[in-house]
Amino acid sequence: MKGEIFEEVEKGYTPQEAVAEAFRCIKCQDAPCNKGCPAGIDVAKFIRQIAQKNFGGAIRVIREENILPGTCARICPQRELCEGQCSSTELAQAIRIGKLQRFVADYEREKGAKLLGKLEPRGLSVAVIGGGPAGLSAAATLVRLGYEVDLFDANPLPGGLLTYAIPPYRLPYEVIEDEIEYIRALGVNIHCQSPKKDIPTLMERYAAVFIGFGAGDPQRMAIEGENGEGIIQGLDLLREIKLGQIENRGIGFQMGRRVEVVGGGNAAVDAAVSARRLGAEVVTIRYRRTEKEMPAWRDEIEFAEKEGVRLEFLCAPKRFLGDHGRLKGIEYIRMKLGETDPSDRAQPMPIEGSEFIVEADTAIVAIGQKPSFEAIEGAGISPEGWVQVDEQTMATSIEGIYAGGDLVNGGDTAIRAVGDGKRAAFAIDEYIKAKHGQT
Amino acid sequence: MKISGESDLSIDFCGIKFKNPFVLSSSPPTTTGEMIKRAFDAGWAGAVTKTLVREEIVNVKPRFASLAFPGSPEEPKKIYAFENIELVTDRPFSVWLEEIEDIRKSYSDHVIIASLMDDASHPEGWKEMAKKVEGAGAHMIELNMSCPHGMPEKGMGSAIGQNPKLAGKVTKWVADAVKIPIISKMTPNVTDISEPARACVENGASAISAINTVGAIMGVDLDTFVPKPAVAGYSAHGGLSGMAIKPIALKAIATIREAVDIPISGIGGIATWEDASEFLLMGASTLQLCTEVMVRGYGIIEDLNDGLSNYMEEHGFASINDMVGVAQRKMRALSDLSKEYKVVSSVKESKCVKCDICYISCNDAGYQAISLREDRIPIIDEEKCTGCSLCYQVCPVWDCVAMKEVSGG
């Protein structure tokens, strides 16, 4: 079982398969795939390079824009991004861009990675708070632009959710570990288990600060029995599984026979698949809207269904039922879709008197996370509760403080976080040059 | 958002610096000055104008035919060879002079080469054109003595290049008339390409470019019985270009390099950085392209530069110059190749897809050294195998069949 949960599901391409796949590309002049990438990778170019067996050139083109190529190749929702735009979809099927990117990333890992170039040192330092994809991307770009970069992360290992939440069967820890090693080799000073920083102190030492500590606090449902035994947070489960792989040990969580998963995002789906792989017989995801509104990606949902996860829609937990504090079942209430809310999704409404009870040994709650804001007091916050930034520069309302990733978008892809971090780094460079002069 | 640079791709060719070895050949991609400027903006280091002549030119329609894998949903169309019956420039010489002058003014680190043509009985025509393009600022002149279609009927193009005496004579006229370097462009439609090349070098050519197109007829329309391309019910000999002529060009470059010690501008089927690298290793030091640009546009320069740069880095070449001729030095007379060196075929079972192709080939066109096991895995009889490599050539899997060295050498 341990092997099953840790082993990567998707197999990589051989060189011949990669070249054949890249050769299918019809080389559209306007390259719609490029427009689909939130990190701005020149997808069309790296496909052409692979078709011409220029693997070294391809990985350089990718890494120039995305410092986490092997990671994002595995976890990007390509069907929603680059591959979703591919013209070949109309001919046969979209070029498997994600697998091509993974091929060159793996190829380079095997051959030994070549470091990207750096500009001359500028003698100024920038602090990056948070070692997830946004922070890593910002830090790598800044160090290449000639800054001394200190990256602070609260966890024992950097990587954020990449390290602690994406299950090993989708993203083995070695991949993110190697890519973080690459960022270290570029010259970023990574400080782990770093205590909370307060901004005014940081601003004394650093010319600018990038904040990308994500949304780490789980959302609470505030319903009866929420803290009972047998009820676990989706992220806690995923973290334990990842630590199991990293520390090469078994998983500390005991899965019951019947597992209920509450939520509709990727974390809910990952937790449900993991529960199956940990031996649960019946795993059911219950989501309060319909499949159409589920924030989880189609590929993820289809994979979960293949793994035997059941999906039920239009119901929400009303209370957890326990026996001496130990979970026995969940009382749900049926929902119907009402008015469309500002996020363009129909608002679920409870149907009075439609309550029903489901037996459960384990409940996994994965209804989203929110950021903890203590560290950026004074920054503008959006009505939805996220840090507000200028979309182009990622600048917050405080001078010299930039932010990106889940912290500002409420939880989106790693690739978007990578794009945020990179854009912020270039804006920070402009800001510092304007303030301190060109040299 | 690029933060750092790559390998130095520059090369000195006849004392002129090219920022990379890639040059547009005298061809449809250099039909006008405006097009050449766009190519320079895209990153091409130089361009040879479409050939200038004194007489007025009228082209027939259509002028192209191609040999292509037809393409399917699973695999896009791939053009293996291109035939054209297009003539030299149909734009006035005076307009070209203005455009050359303008390009020279607007682009300081790009090389503009004027291609010229006349017949072998008009020394004054050659000289006058050469002086004028030199005056307009052309860095070099390329002598078109190699066009295989249309112009030879009038005593021009390959009618000159196929005759070493005429080729030498024309080269001398132009070399004596101007100070800028002269490149004589060779036709492959000869028995021994080293003869015209040597004649040109002896008469003042600073470089040789090779090859022009290969005489060809692309095919026959089976409904109309007219060869391709068909113009109002008839066709004419044309010139073949594209990847199909690359081996002919590589051989021509090796032969020329063996005969004369002079810079070579390699032409003929270069489409990718791999082709480019092979031409450099074979002894060319600048590279001219046309057909791939006709299919994919000026933008291919990005892939050419990047691929070449990456290759140089991976193989430790510090400059283009270090690559030039490395492979040509490994050419020998066949009689000098080792007879003791022995290889036999070996099949990697785990890679075999059981297609039987190696078996059929060896059985019907080889030495019956392959038999099929019950599970259709090919088994090599090393006693019977003569090491010809036919099985390796036909195997559809990249790393399944290998020719393994056996003792005895």
Can you offer a commentary on this structure?
The complex is a heterodimer of chains A (439) and B (409). By secondary structure, chain A is of the alpha/beta class. Chain A has three domains: 10-111, Fumarate Reductase Iron-sulfur Protein, Chain B, domain 2, CATH 1.10.1060; 125-216 and 370-436, 3-Layer(bba) Sandwich (FAD/NAD(P)-binding domain), CATH 3.50.50; 225-368, FAD/NAD(P)-binding domain (3-Layer(bba) Sandwich). Chain A is built from 18 helices and 16 strands. Chain A has helices at residues 2-6, 15-23, 32-35, 43-51, 55-65, 69-75, 82-85, 88-91, 97-111, 133-144, 161-164, 173-186, 199-205, 234-246, 266-277, 298-306, 406-409, 414-436, and strands at 125-129, 148-152, 189-191, 208-211, 217-218, 231-233, 258-262, 282-287, 310-313, 315-323, 326-340, 346-350, 356-359, 362-365, 369-370, 401-403. In chain A, α2 (15-23) crosses α4. Chain B has an eight-stranded parallel beta barrel, surrounded by eight helices. Chain B has a four-stranded antiparallel beta sheet with strand order 5-6-14-11, with no helix packed on it. In chain B, β12 and β13 (227-228) form a beta hairpin. Chain B is globular, with a radius of gyration of 24 Å. The N and C termini of chain B lie far apart (54 Å). Classes of the chains: A alpha/beta (439), B alpha/beta (409). The A-B interface holds A 14-16, 23-27, 29, 40, 45, 48-49, 52-54, 56-57, 60-61, 64-65, 91-92, 114, 116-119, 141, 144-145, 422, 426 and B 1-5, 73-76, 272-274, 296-297, 302-303, 306-307, 309-311, 313-314, 397-399.
